């Protein structure tokens, strides 16, 4: 089987239909409250599915099967921490947001430490989203790039050129969708798209099982012999340096996953914005906590698909299968093995879900830029219509920047040598800056004496300290082997440094 003309028609019709429905659902946007917060009138269960689709749709669909194909099931340990972290956010963070009737996560820091701290954290959020969503957009382009390459229409093109074309197509469609629909359209489309892509994944898994060369038992035996069924790894046999460098040992995953989730769902405007669209605090808390359970089940589903693909392709390497990266393994199966029409439907649902995630990123970046940086300084006297116009202009600007970022990560991931699965790359980038953000929030939430100078000193100390603990050019300049930590610990260490340095700064300044 191959990707047919009918599949292409299905994709075009599906995406056109999604865009039309999304715009119709959103209705007319008349203010930034409509555009960014959906008038705070979205049901909690819709926000739940939107949170899940936003944070995992593209990377989960594409890269999680690759994690299992190239490794094992120890990634699941992270999900336990995710659930714990969400519970903590619902108890300690959401009440503060509801109490202050805030529109962005960084208004709390502005109220607590002043506008300069709000500016610093909001800007850090933008840099984080720029990098992490550049990876997300690159991941979105993977199945389209596979289709174009396997379809034979782009013979002679390099892998990078195919990815550039794919990213441009997706970015263009997403900008149109985001400019018109606002957050309300994004949330409701997330609900629909999640049902479609999960259903498609389950159906694809059934077809893999039916076509396994040695049956399901043979695939399980093959995975077992390769050590791929391992879920728990305590890592007690490792030395200290190796232990903290390994991302999927139990306690690193549990603690790191929990702290990462506290940061991502308590301080990242991408998620907080969604939680602020519900009708009340209780609805926000229900949406957040149950999203952790759904995410764990979703990870399990896609890791299982990765193991089935390992048996289906008889443990062949990506190079032997003609792929540029391991992340293309599931896309290859969808394009080549699914029945005519169904391949197009699943790929279309993947595109649409991914574009919903990307559109929400653009919407959150625009909201933070508009409300945290533009309006306090340049738009105090603006009408609602003027603010809405500025918001849309800023959305276009971020779309251009994110597209360039995706080009950069496509170039990096296609270089010779071993590269991390794209989901690990995206999570690692987000984890790096989340430490500073979470530390600043905790400093303001847990301690009353530190002021804005202490918070800024601690915040930047947390960001800079990680440069010396993450594998990269700065650590390479240090004498000896250095001490590299695993990506789930970036947020843990970064936030601890912020709290420590912020309190020490407060103590020294008060003594004088």
Topology:
Layout: H1 5-26, H2 32-37, H3 44-70, H4 77-92, H5 94-100, H6 107-113, H7 115-151, H8 159-211, H9 215-225, H10 240-245, H11 250-266, H12 269-275, H13 281-312, H14 329-337, H15 342-378, H16 384-413, H17 422-446, H18 452-467, H19 473-476, H20 490-511
Notable features of this structure?
512 residues, Sodium/glucose cotransporter, 20 helices, globular
- How would you name the CATH homologous superfamily? Sodium/glucose cotransporter
CATH class: Mainly Alpha
CATH topology type: Sodium/glucose cotransporter
The low-confidence parts are: none
Described by the principal axes of the CA atoms, the overall outline is globular
Main sheet, how many strands, which sense, barrel? none
Q: How many separate domains?
A: 1
Cα-based radius of gyration, to the nearest Å: 22 Å
Secondary-structure element pattern, one letter each: HHHHHHHHHHHHHHHHHHHH
Fraction of residues in H or I helices: over 70%
How many DSSP-defined strands? 0
Q: Average pLDDT value?
A: 80
Question: Would you identify the CATH architecture?
Answer: Up-down Bundle
